[in-house]
Structures are given as C-alpha cells and as structure tokens.
Write a structure and sequence with these properties.
This protein has 84 residues and is mostly helical. It has one domain (9-82). Helices cover 29% and strands 0% of the residues. It is globular. It starts with 51 loop residues before the first helix and ends with a helix. InterPro entries: Puta_zinc/iron-chelating_dom, UPF0153_domain. It comes from Mixta tenebrionis. This is YkgJ family cysteine cluster protein. Pfam families: CxxCxxCC.
Length: 84
C-alpha cells in the first residue's frame, strides 16, 4: 500500500522518542513533525537521516483508513493504548 497524498497522520499522531533533524528530543503525540512539508509529505523520506522508527512504519488499510481524520483517530488510539 502507498501513502495517501496530503495525509501525514503517521507523522503527526504518534510520539517519536528518537531524535529527528530539527527535533533533537523527538516529538510528542498529536504534534506535526518539523520534517512534514506543506503537502504533508516527509522531507526525509528515503534519507538516512530519517529515524528508524519512522522508516519502519508501513502504511496499511487498517492504519490509514479512508481519510486523514480516520487515520489520526486510529493512530491516536494506538498511541494511548501503548503509552507507558
């Protein structure tokens, strides 16, 4: 499955504990990554600077759903369910 255009839910909803260029302490949940461009695409996609956790996240029908809003809801629920 390929990413939906203008979504960026996976770069917004989950928290990231590892450093991201421009976010040396990672990012909290429900916060847009500074590496999202104006089209909600990752500026680091395919770059070795992209955090491993981000590169390992693969789009799926369940996660991405039909809309960005549905994807955000699913990912934020997953984030809450797996929070320490």
């Amino acid at each position: 499955m390929e990413c939906r255009t203008a979504c960026g839910a996976c770069c917004t909803a989950p928290s990231v504990s590892s450093p991201i260029p421009g976010m040396p302490h990672g990012k909290p949940a429900n916060t847009s990554c500074v590496q999202l461009d104006e089209h909600l695409r990752c500026k680091l996609f395919g770059s070795p600077l992209r955090p491993k956790v981000c590169a390992s996240l693969q789009p799926s029908a369940e996660m991405c759903a039909s809309t960005r809003e549905q994807a955000m809801t699913w990912l934020l629920r997953l984030e809450a369910a797996t929070a320490p």
